[in-house]
Structure formats: C-alpha cells, structure tokens
Specification:
With 72 residues, the protein is mainly alpha-helical. It folds into 2 domains: 35 residues; 36 residues. 94% of the residues lie in helices and 0% in strands. It is a multi-pass membrane protein.
Length: 72
C-alpha cells in the first residue's frame, strides 16, 4: 500500500505543478498581448514557433532517455 500511496502522491504533485505552470504561461501571454503592439507580439509568436520546430528532433530521444535513466 505504501507504493500506491507514493505513486498517487507523486502523480498529484506533478499534476499540480503542470496546472500552475500552464496558468502562469497563460497569464504571461495575456500580459504580453496587452503591453506589446500587435506586430511585436506576432514576432514573439513567430520566435516561439521557430524554437518549437527546432526542438522536435531534440525531444525525440531525450524523454525516453531521461525516463530510462531515472528508472535505473
């Protein structure tokens, strides 16, 4: 029963952290949209898209590698 409790506790803490992170991200985007001109906000969106595009090959193997190394 201790293992199940630990798994549930870890799941809830990771889920809570993810919700907080997404909430902060949303608030930052709303803030930037209000203070920046539309053209500058578009530049930020374009930069995010370019970074996400180049992160695809990086994420292909690192997630699996990280999980495997943590499990050892």
């Amino acid at each position: 029963m201790g293992t199940i409790r630990r798994v549930v506790r870890n799941f809830l803490s990771v889920s809570f952290a993810e919700v907080i992170l997404r909430g902060i991200t949303f608030l930052v985007i709303v803030y930037l949209a209000r203070i920046l001109a539309p053209a500058n906000f578009g530049k930020i969106g374009f930069a995010q898209a370019v970074v996400a595009y180049f992160m695809l090959p990086v994420n292909l193997g690192l997630t699996v590698l990280g999980v495997r190394e943590v499990a050892r």
